[in-house]
Structure formats: structure tokens, C-alpha cells
Predict the 3D structure of the following.
Amino acid sequence: MFFHFRHKFPQLNDWWHKYLPFHKRQEVPAKTLLLSAGKRSQHYIFIEKGCVRAFLNKDGNDKTVQFFFEQEGLASFESFVNNVPSLISIETIEPSILYLLPKKYALQLVEELSREPYFAQMVLQMSAHRQAHYMNEFVSFIRDTPEQRYLNLLKKKPKIVQRVPQHYIASYLGVSTVHLSRIKSKLAKGRSHF
């Protein structure tokens, strides 16, 4: 949605304050399921504090798709926009403080924002940013080894390595926890590859 882009588009701060009364603030423990796969996404989730993951389940195994931290927002976007069952589940990894904006108000916000002269350009920039992120993730899974993907995490997203439990990181990288341990051991010994 929009509010996690407030740092890039300061004009959104006024809208944040206007719509804050419609948000439901929740303090939830780790492992709180915010959306189950197969359910329809009815809230935009903004993270004040904590860590959240999006994941899917394949043959009884969780496959983590993405992590979200403070000042980021998320929803199962296709489900939210098209009112279809979500392909992913969303749950907290850490105790978290969240703001949930019901879909009704999120759509109202979009309607109001659409009348602003900067709206089209802002949406294009946000869409390009998200598209680039997902394209880079997709290309990395095709091009890079799990070790290279782990090194990229260390370099570009150290917050994930510092705060996320290893089994979720392994799932995100597409490897077993044993394989991730081997990668970390090799790197700790100063070897950049197997």
C-alpha cells in the first residue's frame, strides 16, 4: 500500500494522520497468524515495531517469501485488491505492534488520493520499486547459488540475518537449515565458496 513509502513521499504524512483513527492498533506476540492462505485479505498491515513474514506451505513445509520490519506495510495484495483467496499466509516473527487498516478505509484512501495531482506519478514510482524488488528476487533464485543469496542478505539486508531465526532464513533461501549451517561455517572459516 502507501504508508510504508512515507519517507519517500512526505505528502503521505498528512494522509497517515487523517486515516490513523481508522487503523486498529494491535500489540501481538510472536507467531501470531495475521492472514491464513485461502482466506481473503481484509486489512492493510503497517508495522510500527516487530518483524513479519509472508509464507506459503508446500507439502507441509513452510516456504518464506518475504520479511517485513518497522515502517513497512503489507497485505496479500492480489487477495486484497481482487477479493480472492490469498496464496500466502502472514505471521509475526517477533512480538509486534501493528496498525491494521480495514479494506473499506484503504479503498476510500485510494479514492481520495486519486484526486491529487501527484498520485499517478507516485503510484508509478511505487509500482516500479516493488516490481524491481520482486524481479531481483526472482532473478537471484535463478542465477545465484544459495551461498551467493546468503552473502547478498548479509550485504543488502543485514537486519534479516540479525533478527530472523535461522530456519526462516533457510526457508527464504530455499535450503535446509543444515545447508545454511554449512554455508555459515564455510564463510566463518574465510572460504567464500565450497
Notes: The first strand starts at residue 24 and ends at 28. The two ends are 41 Å apart (CA to CA). Helices lie at 12-19, 77-82, 103-113, 119-143, 146-156, 158-163, 166-173, 177-188. Strands lie at 24-28, 33-35, 43-49, 52-58, 61-68, 73-74, 89-92, 96-102.
